[in-house]
Design brief:
single chain; about 240 residues; mainly alpha; 2 domains; two-stranded antiparallel sheet; 9 helices; 2 strands; about 70% helix; about 0% strand; globular; binds zinc ion
Length: about 240
């Protein structure tokens, strides 16, 4: 009899029948490295597959991720961090104007508010997750008839906002290469994508869902902005 290294179950054969853990795992070699790189970039699952699926059927795919299969798409928190980093890198490499969080720093130089917004624009990965929390609260309120909990909605937003960051990165890159004003349209594309994805996640046949998705998104972004501004003003006031 073999003893499973993961759950201590005794079994015969090469795999534990109770948890599926293999008796022996392969040593790490060049094939492992090549397979791992292939998996990350793969069109079968991986990041490219995730992008393709989220572009074509966002609502349906995110629903399936939450309730059926967690292995088809890349992990959502990882996805929003990677895509936000991609956006930041593209801004640096191609030098287009960062229009995502568009505040005029000169208005509140050296104030806590200024510092908060500077932090936001330098850490889009974390900021996006915080924004997602605010939008998720509004979605939870406006779509309260559905049984999804707050964390499931947060996962939905990680995928949606990650795709948004990629759209802005792409439009920004084309803008700087062709010297046009495409980034503005990237922002519209982001917005349309977000309310289409959120609306169809809940029920693609209900038109009112798209309106509610749009309202939750706007209210979430406004709450985020007001809380950030409010915190900054409060800190300056205390000082
Ligand atoms: Zn086991």
């Amino acid at each position: 009899m073999n003893v499973c290294k993961k759950c201590n179950n005794e079994f015969q054969g090469n795999y534990c029948p109770s948890c599926g853990h293999p008796l022996k795992i392969e040593r790490i070699n060049s094939r492992y490295i090549v397979t791992e790189i292939g998996n990350v970039l793969s069109f079968q699952k991986g990041i490219l597959y995730t992008i393709k699926e989220l572009l074509m059927r966002p609502g349906q795919n995110i629903r399936a991720f939450i309730s059926e299969d967690r292995n088809r798409l890349v992990k959502p928190i990882m996805f929003i961090l990677i895509t936000s980093l991609t956006y930041t890198l593209f801004v640096k490499i191609f030098g287009f104007n960062d229009g995502y969080v568009n505040y005029n720093y000169d208005d509140f130089n050296d104030t806590s508010t200024g510092l908060i917004f500077q932090w936001i624009s330098e850490h889009y990965g974390y900021s996006n997750i915080i924004m997602a929390v605010f939008i998720a609260i509004w979605i939870k309120i406006l779509f309260r008839k559905y049984s999804y909990n707050f964390y499931e909605i947060l996962i939905l937003l990680c995928f949606v906002m990650g795709m948004g960051m990629l759209m802005l990165a792409l439009f920004g890159m084309i803008e700087s290469i062709t010297n046009s004003h495409l980034l503005e349209y990237g922002a519209y594309a982001f917005f349309i994508y977000a309310f289409w994805a959120i609306g169809s996640f809940f029920d693609k046949r209900k038109y009112f869902n798209y309106v509610k998705a749009l309202i939750s998104y706007i209210l979430g972004m406004l709450s985020f902005t007001f809380i950030s501004l409010g915190t900054g003003i409060l800190i300056d006031f205390i000082k």
